[in-house]
Amino acid sequence: MTTARIVTAAMLAIGDELLSGRTKDKNIGHLAEMLTMVGIDLREVRIVADDEEAIVDAVNGLRGRYDHVFTSGGIGPTHDDITADAISRAFGVECVHDPEAMALLGAMYERRGMEFTDARRRMARMPVGATHISNPVSTAPGFRIANVYVMAGVPQVFQAMLDSLLPSLQTGTPVLSRTVRSPYGEGEIGGPLTEVQKKHPETSIGSYPKFDGKNFSTDIVIRARDAAVLAAAEVDVMAMIEAIARSR
Amino acid sequence: MTTARIVTAAMLAIGDELLSGRTKDKNIGHLAEMLTMVGIDLREVRIVADDEEAIVDAVNGLRGRYDHVFTSGGIGPTHDDITADAISRAFGVECVHDPEAMALLGAMYERRGMEFTDARRRMARMPVGATHISNPVSTAPGFRIANVYVMAGVPQVFQAMLDSLLPSLQTGTPVLSRTVRSPYGEGEIGGPLTEVQKKHPETSIGSYPKFDGKNFSTDIVIRARDAAVLAAAEVDVMAMIEAIARSR
């Protein structure tokens, strides 16, 4: 068994609309899935308002603690888009119109016969020292500064930026998982499952109740970074379910 | 104009499955909508793993800062349900089998001819000093201790617990909102909208881009606690859109 490399991450979703319930976030779940796939452990997510203080506090609270920090939202052209300013302040650097982003946006608006308004120029602002995260959907780039990756809130744009960013990131050994469906509720499997977990300390076994409006069943999810370790635990989980079936 | 009463809240969603992407959270958006309706400002959300240290840190970081803290997840009968223990530790009290919860659950399992297993008894554990949040869906109660409300992760149960909890909470002056749909993207409205926001400092005006795969349009959301203040800003936002239409 080779040594697993652990790479961690946090996400910060930014936007009043997420906290008022007006918009239901779609980026957290997508990021979680993508990171799991490439072997980055998402350890914590925070959602804060379009509030400079709150963004600065959260970014500074997270970027020292995790290998990667992904943000969504607040990089558009309107007055409530303050993420670039907040990230600049978190890093103690100036927020400026990035020349390369200005050129990209300027050319795009010229092609489309549209005016490059002051509001649109706002989208080219980023902290001094930041580099671009490309945006094939709507041109205005996200940016990275140190281990913080600043992306759009619109899901199509967030996803496109993440696709262009991910190949460049340090990743770890992916966590493998198996799901075993149990027709029995958690109350029935809780005792024996605890024993299975104890027997397989290198796995993390989660149990997720499902409720169909009348009865509970359970999805048992086994996670491990090593395939053989995972398979051994899966055998014991299945044996446990068969034992419950026989005893009824 | 009467003085608005501001009541704040945070949410802590607990569960490995939310961070692996296996489960897409549905409770955050629901809580956000419900709190907005009753006049509680949701200011921050965190998602952490089934990890005692992470839960304790988050709860203690949030409960002093906001009037209310709502948690979801980790109160079932299996080994990975550690929320009751973590909340007890956060408050420095013991985690015990609550006699009333034991009676409720015992009676329910007897009625259904099911064994009251050790795993099921686990669901009756809560910090000393906690009181129940009733659970009409599946009996096992959530609990409140001081300003922290601990609820289930299964959305149907979370929602039922929230319904039984909300009427007992201190609420504030609700935020009213109006949405004005703009056929123009943020780049076009960004400049004039900044002026409208400046003219109406008692409102909070948000601008939410929508992307149909080809073009951006914008939902402009005006929020205020006073109806007259809201209406005045709405008039100016509509006038702004008409002015853009005329200028094209």
UniProtKB/TrEMBL annotation, chains A, B:
Pfam families: FLAD1_M (PF24102), MoCF_biosynth (PF00994)
Sequence ranges assigned to domain MoaB/Mog in this UniProt record: 10-172
Domain of life: Bacteria
Signal peptide range in chain numbering: none
Annotated SMART domains: MoCF_biosynth
InterPro entries for the chain: CinA (IPR050101), FLAD1_M (IPR056596), MoaB/Mog-like_dom_sf (IPR036425), MoaB/Mog_dom (IPR001453)
UniProt protein name: Competence/damage-inducible protein A
Species of origin: Sinorhizobium chiapasense
